[in-house]
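check this:
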Amino acid sequence: MSTSDAFAQGGPHGRHAEIDAAARTIAFSFGLSGITLRRLASTAGLSPGDIAAHEPSMTALVARTFEELAGIELNEARRDIAGFDSALEALRLLVGSLLEDTHGNFNSVWADAWSMGRHNVALARAARDNMTAWHELICSVVRRGMEGREFEGSDSDLVALQFLALIDSITAYSLVDYRTAAERSHLMRRTLEVSLGLAAGSL
């Protein structure tokens, strides 16, 4: 059975699901800017006209694709740290996972969202909402560590903002190969260690 036949049998909802799946694939391979009508048609195996009939706004599709991928990323992070009683271990895992080379696809999608969001209101809103959700997750981990005396300090909000600023800048650095991966990792880890009163190498 051809892809088009499968879409026809699945109806409009099947088409939307396949278009969304194609958009996510494209975002990881070519970035959010790569989500074009022609590339969607090629990836999904549909005609451009069929794509346009079911997804008339590329702007809205780009925003939705980012939101879906960012949600996957955040849910994976929540799942990964759920079993940790130690806030330090949870924070160490978060830092390590976000700095891994395998996380590069998500990092590229975020970089596109910040850039393209200047001209895409829905995408900018999705980026802000997901940054807020990340801030809340990190803040909860840091607050737990401060309350349990694993971390020094009392301003978990500021540390969470610092965490986001660090990982976002490191993402931008990595996209243009500014400094080595080891140097970028050291910047992230050591800055947080100082802010939380941790010994060097704790993260």
